[in-house]
Design goal:
about 550 residues, 3 domains, about 35% helix, Urease, subunit C, domain 1, alpha/beta
Length: about 550
């Protein structure tokens, strides 16, 4: 069998590496042959030196003493616009990501009808994106024409669906509106979406009740429902139960985004949270989750405001923040929730747009308020108004011990919760979360190698074949004959993250090759500039 194969021309041979095939099996030394975009053989025995000479190879990579793994799958990306603005995606590629799942947290690139396009217009302008589209078919065709360096799959955002039909109103959909939402959901799935996502702390998703979500997910029960839940802190357990109820009643696979116990007073809830999830799994409800290996999260600064502030869209939100009466009402609610100095000291500004405010990036809201002689809540209001709400923030609210427990769950995958960024150009903005450059190497270096929370075989399964199976990513996440040639080659003893909260754009160490559909996107640790990524419509 091998002898017949080796007479054929091979475009790329990976020789002598330690192969972890993604299945959580024991690794073995061997060779991988690639023709065009496909693996044509994986042999499990080390060959003699003259083995290589039998091939008509365009390129040979000598991988002795290195790990050869399937390409990493980022199950929680936000690169819908950044890939159009700057298709280099250095932060993703340099850490081994070959496939990214986008459209998370209820926000996708499409559909964009009605008020949905109005809300996303700022993002399009921020990244100087001139093109416009309405549906997912148009967007994916545009991305395909641009050519991208990694594989792109997407969910459809519930927020897009709701805003396109109802706008940003805080009410239940009328019967005819719900039917329109179902129709739009089915249309977007038919155009290539792999499932539906919700962002239940963001408008307009925050206004949807459980029944609405059940009705919608019944319309795509053969796909997947991913959710940024209503609460990851005070109402965490109730939110977990809601998620499981949706899965049970819709008979849809559910996936909890960036699972966490947020806020010190909620850290103890991890036992019951895991217990509820595993009770659901025992009832044959398909439940999985993702997480990044950090104890700080990152999202829009205004996400800490009460949900009623968002109704009607960003213009109405700005109006409310300018009203002294409404500000007092918000301040009272925030004070009731948690207004201690510790809370404000743990919120750091990651991005602003105005030059005069750039000095705030990387500083805590508490220290900024003190510098300006403001109360932290008033500083919050002033900054949001000045920046027209577009302020990114990092929130330190999690526990290291809980993080390790979550990373160890056998049904947890890894997600950066980041957009694609590069070390220069339009996507190098602000002082973002280091997960955009460090998620996968930090997991493999710090937690797997240094802290031994699991075997390397299990860890690689977690970031390759497991997510491919959960999200139905066809012929990826595994090293076997017939699979697409998405491959990472790294040194298990040297792999480490370098990105920090102070310097988030530093590339990791120890990853030498990243191959996407048979083409090296990273070679000898450097980005090649190749654009061999594919649009994975419905995961294919």
């Amino acid at each position: 069998m091998i002898e017949r194969q080796i007479k054929k021309r091979i475009d790329l041979l990976i020789h002598g590496g330690l192969i972890y095939d993604g299945t959580n099996s024991e690794p073995y030394e061997g060779d991988i042959g690639i023709s065009e975009d496909t693996i044509v053989f994986v042999n499990k025995k080390s060959r003699k030196k003259n083995f290589i000479s039998k091939f008509n190879c365009s390129q040979t990579i000598y991988a002795k003493n290195y790990v050869v793994s399937p390409g990493f799958i980022d199950t929680h990306g936000h690169s819908e616009f950044t890939l159009l603005a700057d298709p280099r995606a250095e932060g993703k590629l340099c850490q081994g990501v070959t496939t990214e799942i986008n459209g998370n947290c209820g926000l996708s690139a499409a559909p964009l009808y009605g008020e949905a396009i109005k809300q996303r217009e700022h993002d399009l302008k921020e990244f100087d994106i001139k093109e416009r589209w309405l549906d997912l078919r148009e967007y994916l065709n545009l991305l395909e024409r641009r050519k991208i360096p990694l594989n792109f799959a997407t969910l459809v955002g519930h927020g897009n669906i709701r805003a396109s039909v109802i706008g940003y109103k805080d009410r239940k959909p009328l019967n005819n509106e719900l039917e329109k939402m179902k129709t739009l959901l089915k249309k977007t799935i038919s155009e290539g979406a792999i499932g539906i996502s919700t962002g239940l702390i963001y408008p307009p998703g925050v206004y949807a009740d459980t029944e609405e979500l059940i009705e919608l997910t019944k319309s795509c029960r053969n796909h997947i429902y991913t959710t940024h839940m209503r609460s990851e802190g005070d109402k965490l357990l109730e939110s977990i139960q809601e998620t499981i109820r949706i899965g049970q009643e819709s008979m849809i696979k559910v996936h909890i985004s960036h699972i966490k116990t947020s806020g010190r007073k909620n850290w103890h809830k991890i036992d019951r949270m895991i217990e509820i999830i595993e009770e659901g799994r025992q009832k044959q409800i398909k439940i999985s989750c993702d997480r990044y290996p950090y104890i700080a999260s990152s999202t829009d600064l205004d996400s800490i405001l009460p949900s009623w502030v968002f109704e009607g869209g960003f213009e109405k939100e700005l109006e409310r923040l300018k009203s002294s009466d409404i500000r007092n009402k918000i301040k009272k609610q925030l004070t009731t929730a948690d207004n201690s100095d510790v809370f404000w000291k743990n919120i750091y500004i990651s991005s602003v747009s105005k030059g005069k405010n750039k000095w705030m990036e990387g500083k805590s809201l508490y220290s900024i308020a003190k510098h300006r002689s403001f109360d932290p809540v008033d500083m919050l209001f002033e900054l949001l108004i000045d920046e027209k709400l577009k302020v990114g923030a990092i929130f330190f609210s999690m526990d290291e011990a809980n993080l390790i427990r979550l990373l160890s769950l056998p049904y947890l995958t890894l997600g950066t919760d980041s957009s694609s960024r590069s070390t220069d150009g339009i996507t190098r903005k602000g002082n973002p979360h280091p997960r955009g450059f460090g998620t996968f190497p930090k997991f493999l270096g710090k937690y797997v190698r240094d802290e031994s929370i699991m075997s390397l075989s299990e860890a690689i399964h977690k970031i390759t074949l497991l997510p491919a199976l959960i999200f139905k990513i066809h012929k990826r996440g595994i090293l076997k004959k017939g699979a697409y040639a998405d491959i990472v080659i790294f040194d298990a003893m040297k792999i480490k993250d370098r990105a920090t909260f102070e310097k988030p754009f530093l590339k990791p160490e120890g990853i030498y090759y990243v191959i996407v559909n048979g083409v090296p996107a990273v070679k000898d640790g450097e980005i090649t500039g190749s654009r061999s990524g594919r649009i994975l419509r419905n995961g294919k």
